[in-house]
Amino acid sequence: MGFLQDLWHALPEPLRDPVALAVPFFVVFVLVEGLAAYLLEDERPEEARRGPDGRALPLPGGYDRGDAVASVSMGAVSVVTMTLWKTLGLVVYSVLFAYVAPWQLPMDAWWTWALAVLGVDFFFYWAHRVAHRVRLVWATHQAHHSSEYFNFATALRQKWNNSAELVFWLPLPLLGVPPALVFFGFSVSLVYQFFVHTERVDRLWRPIELVFNTPSHHRVHHGSDPEYLDRNYGGILIVWDRLFGSFQPELHRPTYGLTTPVGTNHIIKLQTHEYAAIVRDVRRAPTWRDKLGYVFGPPGWRPESVAPAASPEPAPEPATPV
Q1: Is residue 4 part of a domain?
Q2: Total domains in the fold of the chain
């Protein structure tokens, strides 16, 4: 394993993040997929081009310029915000690793690297699941689900606040995983998840579909159809969903996006509109119990006394995540 450490330290500091190394490949895949979407004709029958509400359905694997620009822009901003959050996390993880962990796993052992990736993936599953079931955390994540397209550009539509994930990974430095490897595992997960955001890949070989998150599984995660909501949270491995009862196979092409579309490509509104909706709901809530329910209940929660039609702005719920 020493050669991996030598290679790691031989790289310039900015390139030690696998995500930074993968950026040129992200750009190439977005351009190739976008060009394919532009050149290929829509061969769907007329009845398949519109949804039940009469709205035109996006072409499978298609791109919309405004939507793609918004996705790429949010990804660019997330590089900065994620760096800030990771810096804070690194300080906390380093203290826990150095002064609290009962042992420190060796950086030069291959199994430490494997444990870091596996551990990050396991805790990512739970962080992702909580993000879909606790509205305050959902507010940090919902922007990733706001696109009604599903393509490589959508993969770049990242959150600007990943503090919840950092909290969920606290057990790793406490168990002696070097902080640098925690962030390495996170980067590996992000790179892997980029490639599952596409409609150009059908189902893969069955053993792969059984163990790993694939484009088919992740399409379900981004669907707003009732049978697809809150399913397939896995990052790299889909076995967590199979083990913990959140797995759903792909039955038909999903309807992508939020159950209540935001209707804008403004990146600030896409990132903040759910926070604003929470504030409005909390201000209108008559009791502290209701106020807490609007903050910590699942997306779409409302008091029993409030009829569904009376909700001023139903909280969008995901299709479900990187």
Answers
A1: no
A2: 1
Q: What are phi and psi of 234, to 5 degrees?
A: -60, 150
Which residue range(s) make up the domain with 305? 14-39+57-322
Q: Identify whether 122 is part of a domain.
A: yes
Residue 234 has pLDDT above 50, yes or no: yes
Collapsed DSSP state (helix, strand, coil) of residue 288: helix
Q: Does residue 128 sit within a domain?
A: yes
Please report which confidence band the pLDDT of residue 321 belongs to, taking 50, 70 and 90 as the band edges.
very low
pLDDT at 318: 45
The answer to the question of residue 45 being in a domain is no
* Residue in 140, 148, 158 with CA at minimum distance from that of residue 67: 148
Q: Could you give the angle at which helices 267-284 and 65-95 cross, rounded to 10 degrees?
A: 70
- Judge contact between 132 and 299, C-beta under 8 A: yes
Q: What digits encode the pLDDT tens for the residues 35-94?
A: 888 777 665 566 666 666 666 667 677 899 999 999 999 999 999 998 899 889 989 999
> Tokens 């035109």 — which residue?
56
Q: What is the dihedral of CA 56, 58, 60, 61, to 10 degrees?
A: 170
Amino acid, res. 61? G
